[in-house]
Amino acid sequence: MENKTSLIRIMRMLHRNVGYYLIGFVIIYSLSGVLLIYRDTDLLKQETVVEKNLPKDTDPAKLGEILRIRKFNIIKEENNIFYFENGSFDRSTGQVLFTTKEPLPVLQKINSFHKLSSKDGLHWVSLGIGILLFFMAISSFWMYKKGSKTLKRGILIAVAGLITALAVVFI
Questions:
Q1: What is the pLDDT of residue 145?
Q2: Which residues have C-beta within 8 Å of that of residue 95, sequence separation ≥ 6?
Q3: pLDDT, tens digit, for every residue of 87-123?
Q4: Are residues 57 and 95 in the same domain?
């Protein structure tokens, strides 16, 4: 019995301390996740003028790919100048001038946590946060004595949450 009590005590201590440690990460990660939902709007974005010089023989049809502009469409052409949404390309000089809307620099930095790949050096931070969050979820089952009403209720709520999450993902 004393071993179970000490395991419960250790898990409570770890759960509490890891939880306090993760608060900052969770706040930043959740706020950036909510803001990413609205990335297709102009919310908290600033307009930036981009000027580039491309080779004069650049195919105007490939500008969208070269400039990384989604849904690129040439609107019209006049005197060897191709106009597209928010910009133009002068084929005779190779000059491209367009405006783009980018998230504020601090938000770009925060949003990068959601877009990390294994090649990025910061992926270890994201991996560590993920492991600690997994620990927080699992350690909650050791917070109460085996067979207690609180633990049984917690397990039912956890199962309901898991079913809801799976439904959201697969439906």
A1: 85
A2: 51, 52, 53, 54, 89
A3: 999 999 999 999 999 999 998 888 888 788 899 988 9
A4: yes
Among 93, 51, 86, CA closest to 72: 86
- 71 burial (CB, 10 Å; 0-12 / 13-18 / 19+) is exposed
Beta bridge partners of 35: none
Q: Where are the alpha helices (DSSP H) in the chain?
A: 2-37, 63-67, 105-111, 123-139, 149-170
- Residue 158 in any domain: the answer is no
Pair 36, 112 in one domain: yes
Report helix angle 123-139 to 2-37, nearest 10: 130
- 33 and 7 fall within a common domain: yes
Is 168 domain-assigned?
Answer: no
- Helix (H/G/I), strand (E/B), else coil: 48: strand
**Based on the domain organization, do 8 and 92 belong to the same domain?**
no
33 and 56 inside one domain: no
pTM: 0.71
Separation between Cα atoms, residue 162 and residue 168, nearest integer Å: 10
The helix/strand/coil state of 154 is helix
Same domain, 93 and 14: no
Range of the domain at 87: 45-102
